[in-house]
Amino acid sequence: MTTTFTANNAEAYQHHMGRWSERLATSFLDFASLDDPGSILDVGCGTGSLTFLLAERFRNAQLAGIDFSQSYVDFARARAGSRDISFEQGDASAMKYADQSFDSTLSLLVLNFIPGPEKAVREMARVTKGGGIVAASVWDFRGGAPYLRMLFDTAAMLDPEEGGATRARAFSMPLTNPGELTAMWQRIGLREIVESFLTIRMEFASFADYWEPFLGGQGVTGSYVKGLPAEKRSLLEHHVRLAYLSGSDDGPRSFATTACAVRGVR
User: Fold this and answer.
1) Which of 43, 117, 159, 214 could bridge to 163 as Cys pair (CB 3.0-4.6 Å)?
2) Of the CATH numbers 3.40.50.300, 3.30.70.580, 3.40.50.150, 3.40.50.12780, which one belongs to the domain with range 10-265?
């Protein structure tokens, strides 16, 4: 599987996005409304944000997580400690699990980064038992991510060619517009489909807490920021800082951030 998502440093990812994935996982799992499944697969498990919450809520369930990044899988395994969770490196679009292996299959914040995501969703349905829940969520990048808009709108103003093109790619990824997840769930034959929006607050202690995680180079945004020449990165940092401060002193800021979620029955 090829992807535009840079995923080679699990600790940097955890600081960049893992902390927010953990926060979203709670409302996403509430939305998924699992009925005490005996086995659950987490597709695109990353560093384990959703998987570990599943372990807390369904203590007797057999849990598995799959991710294309070996770095993230290794990190999740280390976090698991003595908990009996299977974390494997693999391709979400061509999983090795047998048909109907799991009672439920979930995916948190990854499908839009997979080229040809319908293959991955069909795989999610394939490995789910009849009557099981298949659910996923992705950030509403175009309309529900002001913390990213602040950065990418500034980048596009300063550098219309590269910054503008990167902004266009970031906010036009598949499955990130209302209704797109539902349409895909319908195409692959899932039933009792429900789509909703889930909102969390991203709370930063300071501008440094906001900016420095991007320097870890993870994801689309981190890869763009870290890849800039030092002079361009410094200029971007200066203007994004002004946007973050917005005429006030440095300190805590809280941004509402929304994800689109869908669930259906196999």
Assistant:
1) 159
2) 3.40.50.150
pLDDT digits (tens, 9 = 90+) for 173-228: 999 888 999 999 999 999 999 999 999 999 999 999 999 999 999 999 999 999 99
Candidates 158, 11, 168; CA nearest to 75 is: 11
Q: Are 87 and 73 in contact (CB under 8 A)?
A: yes
User: What is the spatial distance between Cα 76 and Cα 73, in angstroms, rounded to a whole number?
Assistant: 5
Reading the block at residue 222, the tokens are 């981190």
Residue partners of 65: CB distance under 8 A and separation at least 6: 41, 42, 45, 48, 51, 73, 76, 85, 86, 87, 88
| 34 φ/ψ sector (left φ>0, alpha ψ -120 to 50, else beta) | beta
d(CA 24, CA 4): 22
